[in-house]
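Researcher: We plan to redesign the surface later, but first we want a full-length starting point. Tokens attached.
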């Protein structure tokens, strides 16, 4: 039973990984757009004496959106900052339990943040709130894009938490380590070498 559930969750996590990669790439494109906007603004102020774009407002939105769009990719790549000085000295089963506890804490964080972000976005949309800027941006638009990234991250955390839970219950300790465990130095070096060769 656990093997079948884990196989299904692995397929879903593969799809999440692909979606997360594309969201992270889209966030990267938005960052490049920010660079272009700031460059145009600096040049227009220099040569025309006024701003041709409203880069300050738009870059603030873009930074929040692109950050939230990259969270799930960072999770799937196990690239979040970890303090693992003691972790790597524990037996593999203990590490698996610690990974589950960490994911449960992250899931609780997601519930709180997404709930608050949804409330803020809903209130902004319902109240017709606009930015107090020359653009007068309907504030719900950047908030909804920000919420999209947070929601996708929450889905990734939820599926990964379930996979780790069922992996531990089914005795798939190596699968748990592969998906959620902190990589050892040797594993990091091997990953770096594989990426350099491809």
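Model: Full-length starting sequence:
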């Amino acid at each position: 039973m656990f093997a079948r559930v884990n196989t299904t969750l692995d397929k879903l996590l593969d799809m999440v990984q692909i979606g997360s990669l594309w969201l992270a790439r889209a966030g990267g494109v938005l960052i490049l757009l920010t660079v272009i906007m700031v460059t145009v603004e600096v040049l227009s102020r220099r040569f025309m004496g006024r701003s041709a774009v409203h880069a300050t407002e738009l870059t603030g939105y873009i930074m929040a959106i692109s950050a939230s769009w990259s969270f799930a990719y960072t999770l799937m790549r196990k690239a979040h900052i970890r303090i693992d000085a003691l972790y790597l000295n524990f037996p593999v089963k203990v590490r698996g339990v610690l990974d589950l506890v960490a994911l449960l804490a992250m899931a609780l964080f997601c519930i709180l943040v997404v709930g608050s972000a949804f409330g803020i976005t809903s209130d902004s949309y319902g109240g017709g709130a606009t930015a107090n800027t020359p653009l007068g941006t309907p504030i719900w638009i950047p908030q909804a894009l920000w919420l999209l990234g947070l929601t996708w991250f929450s889905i990734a955390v939820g599926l990964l938490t379930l996979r780790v839970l069922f992996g531990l219950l089914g005795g798939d300790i190596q699968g748990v380590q592969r998906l959620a465990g902190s990589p050892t130095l040797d594993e990091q070096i091997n990953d770096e070498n594989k990426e350099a060769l491809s």
